[in-house]
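Chapter summary example.
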Amino acid sequence: MMIIQSAKMAFKSIMANKLRSLLTMLGIIIGVMSVIALVAIGQGATKQVTDRVQSLGSNLLTVSILGRGASTAIDYKQAEKLGEIEGISRVAPVINQSATVKYGNKNDSVGVTGTNADFLEVQNYKLAAGRFIGQVDLDFRHKVAVLGSAAAETLFGEDDPVGSYISINGNRFKVVGVLASKGESAAGSSDEIVIVPITTGERVFRSAGVRTVYLTVANEKETEAVSRRLEEELAKLFRGNTNSYRVFSQQELLETVTSISSTLSLALGGIAAISLVVGGIGIMNIMLVSVTERTREIGVRKAIGAKKRDILLQFLVEAVVLSGLGGLLGIAAGVGVAQGLSGVMGLDVVFSPEVMLLAFGFSMAIGVIFGIFPANKAAKLKPIEALRFE
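The structure predicted for these 390 residues follows.
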């Protein structure tokens, strides 16, 4: 029997039992839908994190000072001197402190960052208004501040903050600039920030010493070599105690994040694929019932000349059609669910044609694997025994 004829008979049988066929396909639909939706959300999360990391550039190096004995930081001048290492173009030492910032009767608890003029470029911020911290502010310990967009909105609303005075832990600072919005990151909002000169911050917060230093490499291809030179300089600074510091490259962080996210997406897809197997068991169960119900039909077809392979092909095609239709409906449902979650929860989703084809191909394979046994059972029925069946 031709495959086209078998397919027509399969559709006829499916349409004759619409509700049962739909319930049979439900396991496949749910399985494919879960795979498509979960992998799309997982890949969307990977892209979101990757974009955030890449926004800082793959030529960024971060030095974390862990300390040596009683010394848990380096001073500002030592941190700036790291910028003299060959291959480093900018250096931005930072100190961080949580503080209450007030303006009039409004206040906000934010992270205050003390840094230098290079911080703007190193951390890839843009100015929305005013200016950034300058060298003169560092030299004379000026009490000036640059507000992140979220902090500015909380304190000033729609008003222009530049030129106004705010209070940081009781100290009066003049607002000289506002940063453009940068959005969320893995560490939280990048806009809920107030930046002051590092020299002023050390005095106001009584926190001498730098524990974090950001550096950019002039040539991205030399990042690894520059990182080694940086570690050599730090080893001299801490007299060979390599446990006193850590050097992280943005590229390493990007590779780690991508690896973790990809593994998570794969695990989610694997868990969802289990329901496809459950759906295949459902197809096999229904096909076995169908063989029992249609025993006389099989006997009649064999009596008028149908061969074993014709009966085998008929029931196998029917199982594949069921799983194939379930796969197509599952893809449509998966796209709809993922987009719905994206709209409601604000998640990024990335649909992969390869994953869709893989899910559909897997659903078809499920139909073949779980359809063989009932199809083979039908094909082995003897015409006389089938015609006598009641």
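To summarize the output: The chain has a mean pLDDT of 83.
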